Amino acid sequence: MGKAAFLGGLCIAxxxxxxxxxxxxxxxxxxxxxxxxxxxxxxxxxxxxLAIGAYGIALEFSPEFAPAYFQSRAxx
Length: 76
Hints:
This protein is mostly helical. It has one domain. It is 78% helix and 0% strand. The chain is built from four helices and no strands. The protein has helices at 3-18, 25-44, 48-61, 66-74. The mean pLDDT is 74.
């Protein structure tokens, strides 16, 4: 993934995080789980920076989502 694509995705993620507080708790948790799954994929492809970003976005959506917190700390 090139820098432009990463920055575009990051911009979209920031916009999503801006309205995340308006989402229902189960929707925020499901979205966080999706980002954790993405981070796992990025780790497999040895893209640590993208994995860290995905874990961070997961925690923005749902700060109490334990898998995002512990996997971001344990696996990188």
